[in-house]
User: Which sequence fits this backbone?
C-alpha cells in the first residue's frame, strides 16, 4: 500500500440500503486514510451515515461497493470466519447501547471475548478483572448488566472491547447514553488507550467532546470531509 | 471455550426456567416410558424364566396339538385319549423318573337343586401341586395325598354356575356322589398358562368312581437329567404316535420350549411398547426444537453481539447445541429416575390387582437400558438443536446494532 503507517484505508466505499424507489445511499464514495495511533472524532447530523461508516469499518457490515483495507488486508474479499477473526483480534467495538450479554456478569462478559480467541480460562479471569479495575469497576465484577447504571455498563463494554488487545477501537456514540461527567470519564479511558499507541475512532454529537480528538472528520449525506 | 458455552447455555436455560422445565419434562416422560417398559418387560422375562426353569425336568404329554400359549386352555374336549399301553411305553424309556397322568371326562354337577354338565379332571395330588400351585387358590387348599370325596373348583364354577355361590366345605353331588369343596381358584380370566376358571379337580380314584372311566387326557413326565429332556420328549412322541399309527396323535412339550415361545411373545410385546414410547421421544424432540427456535428468535440481538465481538459461526452453533443437549440430558436423567421408580410402582400395583403369580414381578433395569436412555437423549438433544443452531449461526453481526 501507499501509506506505510495506515491501519485503515477506504477506497470508494459506497453503501446503499434498499432498492428501487426506497433506495438510500448512506455512503457515497468514502475515501479516508487513518494512521496508526490516530485519535479521530466523526461528526455529522443525524442520518448522515456515521453509524453506517463505523459498522463498515468494524467489519460488522459489508460495503455495497469499494474496498476496505485493515492492516493492508483487503477485508472486502474475506469470508465469514476470517471476518470474525478480524473483529476478534484487530477491532474493539463499543456500541451506543452497550450491548452486553444480559445473562452474563460483567466479568463473564469481558472473559467471553477472550474465550472466542482461545485464551486459557485462568488467564482470562485475571485479565478481565484487571481490565474492569482499569475502568474503575472492581466492585461490580459479579453484577449483571441489569444491575448496573448506563455509565457502568458502558465501562464494562470498554473493558470488553480491550480484552483481546485490538489495535483499533471503534466507538459509535459511546457517550451518547450517559451524562456529561460519565462521558468525559469514558473519553479519558479511551484517550489513555490511544496514548498507548492504539487507533481510536469515536462518533459523537457533542462538539466539545469531538474537539478533544487529534483529528475531526465530518460527514454529510454520506460524503466525508475534514 | 467449552466452559463458556456451557455457562451461556446453562444461564439461558435458567433465564427461561419454566419454558425449559416444560421442554425437559417432555424428554423426561419419553425416557421414563422407555426405561419403565424395558424394565417391566425384562422383569416379566426374569419371573417367567425363573418359574419355568424350576420345572425344566418336566415334560407334558397330551393328545393333539400340544401345550402352547397360543392355543389357550388345556381342557379342549377331544374323543381321543392316551392308553394304558402308552403310559407303560413311556415308563420304559430310559432316563425317566416318574410318569403321572391326568384323567379327563364329563359329569353332572348338582348344587342347590340345579344340574350342570361339567368337565372333570382326575389328577394326582402331588402333580396338582406342581401344575396348579397354592398361590392360584383364592380359598381353601389343594387336595392332599389321601383325600377322598374332595374337589377343587374354578372361580366360575363356584360363583357363576349356580344361583347360589359354592363356598369352601360346601357339599355338591357329582353324578349323584357326594363331594366336599376343598379349595376354590382365584379368578384368572385372560392370560395365564392354563385357565382354571371352569375346572373341577379330583383324585384319580374318585374320578374312576364317578365316571366309571379312566381316560388319560395328559401325562406329566419327569426326567433324571435335564440335559436329555428334549431328546426324551421326542422319543415319547415317537412311541405314542407309533402306538396309534398317527404322526400327529400326541405331543410332548418341554418347559424350555414353552419358555422359548413365551420369551418370544414377551420380546415382541416389549419391542412394540418401546416403539410406542419412542413416539413420545419424537414429540419431545420437536418440543426442544420449538423451544430452541423461539430462543434463537428472542436472542437475535444477543447472537448479533456475540458475532460482532468475534464469535465464529461454529462458536454460535456449539452454544446452541450445548443448550439443547443440556436440556435433553437433564430430561433424560430425570426420566431414568422416574422410570426406575415408575416401573417399581407399576409392578407393585400389578402385584396387588393383577392375576396371582405376578406378585413376584420385579422390574429389572439393566445397565444397557440406562446407557441406551442417556445415549438416546444425547442424540435427541443434538439432533433437535441442529436446525435452530444453524439458524442462529447464520445471523449477521449487524443485528447487534439494529434497533428494534
Ligand atoms: N438498515 C437500514 N435500512 C435502510 N436504511 C437505513 C438502514 N440503516 C440506516 N439507514 C439509512 O441510512 C442513512 C444513514 O444512517 P446512519 O444510521 O448511518 O445515520 P447516523 O449518522 O448514524 O445517524 P444518527 O446520528 O441518528 O445515529 C439514514 O438515512 C438511515 O435512514
Ligand atoms: Mg448512528
Assistant:
Amino acid at each position: 500500500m501507499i501509506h506505510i503507517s495506515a491501519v485503515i484505508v477506504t477506497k470508494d466505499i459506497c453503501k446503499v440500503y434498499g432498492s428501487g424507489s426506497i433506495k438510500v445511499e448512506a455512503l457515497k464514495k468514502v475515501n479516508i486514510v487513518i494512521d496508526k495511533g490516530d485519535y479521530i472524532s466523526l461528526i455529522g447530523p443525524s442520518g448522515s451515515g456515521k453509524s453506517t461508516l463505523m459498522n463498515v469499518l468494524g467489519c460488522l457490515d459489508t460495503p455495497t461497493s469499494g474496498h476496505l483495507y485493515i492492516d493492508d488486508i483487503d477485508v472486502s474479499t474475506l469470508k465469514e470466519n476470517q471476518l470474525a477473526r478480524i473483529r476478534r483480534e484487530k477491532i474493539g467495538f463499543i456500541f451506543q447501547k452497550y450491548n452486553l450479554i444480559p445473562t452474563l456478569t460483567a466479568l463473564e462478559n469481558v472473559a467471553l471475548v477472550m474465550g472466542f480467541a482461545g485464551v486459557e480460562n485462568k488467564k482470562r479471569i485475571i485479565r478481565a478483572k484487571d481490565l474492569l479495575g482499569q475502568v474503575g469497576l472492581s466492585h461490580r465484577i459479579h453484577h449483571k448488566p441489569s444491575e448496573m447504571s448506563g455509565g457502568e455498563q458502558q465501562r464494562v463494554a470498554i473493558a470488553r472491547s480491550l480484552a483481546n488487545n485490538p489495535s483499533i477501537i471503534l466507538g459509535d456514540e459511546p457517550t451518547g447514553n450517559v451524562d456529561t461527567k460519565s462521558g468525559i470519564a469514558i473519553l479519558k479511558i479511551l484517550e489513555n488507550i490511544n496514548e498507548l499507541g492504539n487507533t481510536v475512532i469515536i462518533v459523537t454529537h457533542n462538539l466539545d467532546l469531538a474537539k478533544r480528538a487529534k483529528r475531526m472528520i465530518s460527514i454529510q449525506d454520506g460524503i466525508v470531509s475534514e | 471455550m467449552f466452559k463458556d458455552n456451557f455457562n451461556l447455555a446453562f444461564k439461558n436455560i435458567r433465564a427461561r426456567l419454566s419454558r425449559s422445565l416444560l421442554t425437559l419434562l417432555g424428554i423426561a416422560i419419553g425416557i421414563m416410558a422407555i426405561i419403565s417398559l424395558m424394565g417391566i418387560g425384562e422383569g416379566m422375562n426374569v419371573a417367567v424364566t425363573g418359574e419355568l426353569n424350576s420345572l425344566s425336568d418336566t415334560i407334558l404329554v397330551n393328545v393333539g396339538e400340544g401345550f402352547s400359549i397360543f392355543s389357550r386352555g388345556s381342557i379342549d374336549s377331544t374323543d381321543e385319549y392316551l392308553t394304558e399301553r402308552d403310559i407303560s411305553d413311556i415308563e420304559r424309556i430310559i432316563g425317566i423318573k416318574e410318569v403321572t397322568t391326568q384323567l379327563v371326562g364329563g359329569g353332572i354337577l348338582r348344587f342347590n337343586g340345579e344340574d350342570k354338565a361339567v368337565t372333570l379332571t382326575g389328577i394326582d395330588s402331588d402333580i396338582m401341586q406342581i401344575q396348579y400351585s397354592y398361590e392360584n387358590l383364592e380359598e381353601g387348599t389343594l387336595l392332599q395325598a389321601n383325600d377322598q370325596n374332595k374337589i377343587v373348583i374354578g372361580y366360575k364354577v363356584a360363583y357363576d354356575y349356580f344361583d347360589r355361590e359354592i363356598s369352601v366345605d360346601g357339599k355338591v353331588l357329582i353324578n349323584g356322589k357326594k363331594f366336599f369343596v376343598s379349595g376354590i381358584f382365584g379368578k384368572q380370566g385372560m392370560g395365564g398358562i392354563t385357565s382354571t376358571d371352569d375346572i373341577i379337580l379330583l383324585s384319580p380314584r374318585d374320578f374312576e368312581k364317578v365316571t366309571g372311566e379312566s381316560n388319560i387326557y395328559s401325562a406329566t413326565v419327569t426326567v433324571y437329567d435335564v440335559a436329555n429332556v428334549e431328546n426324551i420328549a421326542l422319543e415319547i412322541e415317537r412311541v405314542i404316535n407309533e402306538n396309534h399309527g398317527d404322526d400327529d396323535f400326541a405331543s410332548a412339550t418341554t418347559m424350555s420350549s414353552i419358555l422359548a415361545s413365551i420369551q418370544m411373545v414377551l420380546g415382541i410385546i416389549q419391542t412394540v411398547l418401546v416403539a410406542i414410547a419412542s413416539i413420545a421421544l419424537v414429540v419431545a424432540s420437536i418440543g426442544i426444537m420449538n423451544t430452541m427456535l423461539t430462543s434463537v428468535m428472542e436472542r437475535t440481538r444477543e447472537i448479533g453481539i456475540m458475532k460482532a465481538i468475534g464469535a465464529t459461526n461454529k462458536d454460535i452453533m456449539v452454544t446452541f447445541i450445548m443448550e439443547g443437549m443440556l436440556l435433553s440430558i437433564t430430561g433424560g436423567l430425570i426420566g431414568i429416575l422416574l422410570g426406575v421408580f415408575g416401573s417399581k410402582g407399576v409392578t407393585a400395583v400389578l402385584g396387588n390387582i393383577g392375576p396371582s403369580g405376578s406378585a413376584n414381578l420385579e422390574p429389572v433395569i439393566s445397565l444397557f437400558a440406562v446407557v441406551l436412555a442417556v445415549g438416546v437423549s444425547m442424540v435427541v438433544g443434538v439432533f433437535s438443536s441442529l436446525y435452530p443452531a444453524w439458524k442462529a449461526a447464520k445471523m449477521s453481526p449487524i443485528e447487534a446494532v439494529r434497533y428494534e
Notes: The interface with chain A takes residues 1, 3-4, 7-8, 11-12, 14-15, 301-302, 305-315, 396-398, 400-401, 403 of chain B (CB under 8 Å). The radius of gyration of chain B is 32 Å. Residues A 50-51, 172 surround magnesium ion (ligand 2) (CB under 6 Å).
